[in-house]
Amino acid sequence: MRDEKGQAMSELILVLPLLTGLILGLMQMAVFLSARCAFEYACGQAARQYAGGFLSDPTTAGLSNALWAGLGTYQRFFDPGSFQITPVPATSEILAPFQKTAGLLPGPLGSFLNQSAGRLLNYGGQWWVLRIRFKGLPLASWLLPQGVWVETQMCVLKYPFGAPP
Amino acid sequence: MMNLLRRSSEKPQGQVLLATLFFCFIFAVLFVGVYKSGVLYGLKERSNRACELTALSAGAVYANGLQWVRLTNLFLVTFAILDLTVIAAAVAAAGAVSFGALAGIALKSDPHFRQKVQKLQSLLFGINLSVPGLYPSLIFAESLSVARKNNLSDNWFKPGGPLSFQVPLPPSPAFLFNSETTSPLWTALVPSMSLRFRTADQFIQDQGDSESQKVYYQYQDQKTGTYHYVEEKDTELAPNSTNPGQRRVKQGLEGSGKLLKLEPVVLGDAEREAQAAAQSDIEKSGLRTATQSFKAIAPLLRGILLDVTDKTDPPDHTFIAYTQLPTSLPPGDGSPNPIQSIAEISVEGPGLAAWDLTAPAYQSRRIHLKPERLAEILVPETVLQSLVQSGKIPAVPNLFSPAAFPGGF
């Protein structure tokens, strides 16, 4: 402690926690930003598969599975239990008001018009709001005990929307 | 101040302080660098995704519209058969009269039901109209709506609502319809489905021209804008092409591998003279082939409109979306800093004829665009150049010429 080496060591011991915190914080931020980017990409891939009719299950559950698979090695940084997809259906600007009007008409006529519109304008889609919790690096999880919520939204139309013609 | 700094740096405490400051500076730079690049990467990904989803959505509406074309073509065929039935009944009722009288009765009794369907098709799909058709406008409206839902910037409508439409300059998002075959480029901004009516003379051309005239193909050099024409013998079928029958320039020749479009008729002067001489010889000898006889009535047949078909061969049903994602990133000059993206899709299917109604539906496919395509579309000079070439605005050297403003200043 009294010679120069001892002094340097004691200074290093004092600075080490701060230095470790800074390095881990930097790594945590880099991993978070990279994981968020991977999440955005996986969302896009899942939506493209939905639009192209390549999802075996074109429901929210199917999209959720495709998205999780698309995260690949980044899965370890996210909490699967926190994954939320809020779907908002009937995104067609033209079909929705038409269906609303047809719904006001009495029984058979209204349903006939509704079905006709559904057959002619056979496209439709989804508008999703997606949320997931980023857990962070296991080593540096104490830096973010609650994690960070990542949120995005996307909308796409597909054709044919209903059963294949 | 400088003296104070110098004096303090000579002491151990001052040196430690400076080293700490330097250390903090390095870490701050690292943090800011990682943060900015990470945020930008994420936004770029979001912008690209939103743009591609907008283009794919437009493709879905477009594909649905092409199914409508098939359906209306079926109506057209049905009404044409109805027309023929009415004409046949009228001719049969007239009994045995001369050929001329029969033709007169046929013309008079024609109820022209098919023309009503054609008018409807024209209005629906914007064929031979100076304004966009109803369905192309629907593609535009749905694409705009999806772009908004994907948080992309929209300057087509003021915040007041759907009635507050304005023509934005420059438009964002901008949609280009069938840009490969639309010239000048700015006209691709007008919603269109690249359709036309098939005419009766087309069948004669298909039969007769293959023997007497050479078939030429063309491609355009994207850098210079020059068109190059290639003879059929210098072409080959392009493998793995999205369009059936797509040809390309043969390997080993100039422009090898370039995808080609069919050029209807291109004749050199010598060929034209030779053909005229041959024609005159035939006429002198009094001989006329069946094809030539049909050609004589080609102008008449050209006026007979049949069903709706693709405007170009091979068909071009493409859609480009150019979008901007607004961000709050500090650009440094106080102006907004949106992220620009571009995406293209192609809508492909087996055919538009009435008998294709039960064929597989049209589907949109994403096309990977080269980055220079974005520059080509975005560079204002390109748009200005196309406007000048189209004659919509006078060229710069002619601005002060009285001829540039026929109506006077």
Describe the structure.
The complex is a heterodimer of chains A (165) and B (409). With 165 residues, chain A is an alpha+beta fold. Helix content of chain A is 51%, strand content 20%. Chain A is built from four helices and three strands, in the order ααβααββ. Chain A has helices spanning 4-51, 60-71, 95-104, 107-120, and strands at 78-88, 124-134, 148-158. In chain A, helix 1 (4-51) packs antiparallel against helix 2. Chain A starts with a helix and ends in a 7-residue tail after the last strand. The model of chain A has no long low-confidence stretch (mean pLDDT 82). Chain B is of the alpha+beta class and 409 residues long. Helix content of chain B is 47%, strand content 14%. Chain B is built from eleven helices and eleven strands. Chain B has a four-stranded antiparallel sheet with strand order 1-9-10-11, covered by helices on one side. In chain B, strands 4-3-7 form a three-stranded antiparallel sheet, with no helix packed on it. In chain B, strands 2-8 form a two-stranded antiparallel ribbon. In chain B, helix 2 crosses helix 3. Chain A binds chain B through residues 22, 25-26, 29-30, 32-34, 36-37, 40-41, 43-44, 47-48, 51-53, 91-94, 120-123, 125, 127, 152-161, 164-165, and chain B through 27, 30-31, 34-35, 37-39, 41-42, 45-46, 48-50, 52-53, 56-57, 59-61, 63-64, 67-68, 138, 141-142, 145-146, 149-151, 361-364, 366.
Topology:
The complex is a heterodimer of chains A (165) and B (409).
Chain A: H1 4-51, H2 60-71, E1 78-88, H3 95-104, H4 107-120, E2 124-134, E3 148-158
Antiparallel strand pairs in A: 1-2, 2-3
Helix pairs in contact in A: 1-2, 3-4
Chain B: H1 2-10, H2 12-94, H3 99-109, H4 113-125, H5 134-149, E1 174-177, E2 195-199, H6 202-212, E3 216-220, E4 227-231, E5 235-237, E6 247-249, E7 261-263, H7 269-285, H8 290-296, H9 298-302, E8 305-310, E9 318-325, E10 339-348, E11 363-367, H10 371-378, H11 380-390
Antiparallel strand pairs in B: 1-9, 2-8, 3-4, 3-7, 5-6, 9-10, 10-11
